[in-house]
Amino acid sequence: xxxxxxxxxxxxxxxxxxxxxxxxxxxxxxxxxxxxxxxxxxxxxxxxxxxxxxxxxxxxxxxxxxxxxxxxxxxxxxxxxxxxxxxxxxxxxxxxxxxxxxxxxxxxxxxxxxxxxxxxxxxxxxxxxxxxxxxxxxxxxxxxxxxxxxxxxxxxxxxxxxxxxxxxxxxxxxxxxxxxxxxx
Length: 184
Prior knowledge:
Elements: H1 3-20, E1 28-34, E2 41-47, E3 50-52, E4 57-63, H2 67-74, E5 77-84, E6 89-100, H3 107-115, E7 144-158, E8 165-173, E9 176-182
Antiparallel strand pairs: 1-2, 1-5, 3-4, 4-7, 5-6, 6-7, 7-8, 8-9
């Protein structure tokens, strides 16, 4: 395996590690969408619930009424931004996103996982996220969904005083990734 593909393997191992380590720096990341109907960028911090190495998929939980769900339903191209402060890695991921609900076979399992967490109340507010309100009110209905994002491109910037390095990997089909060096 060449050095370039070894880097991609190392980065993916960090995401797998973040599946079990809640304090891993890749656990929180920025998710960028195109705001509907404005057509402007929208970015927010989300929690990585799972990285699936076999499909290069990232998974986050969300309120099904969240604006990001509407954004993704109109434009499924998203960008993810991860930063590892100790290793000084910035990883940008271009992906295709899909909001998954009750019809998905994994829904029940993920809902049960969410129910085991104090954050379940995040999905039980009476009003959708972003609604102006002086006080958050809760109901009995759970507005839970998850977003699956399949990577199409990785852009990895490694910051180093001796000289920054940057590599891009583009999915060319199946499990095949083509890598190239970029000017940092």
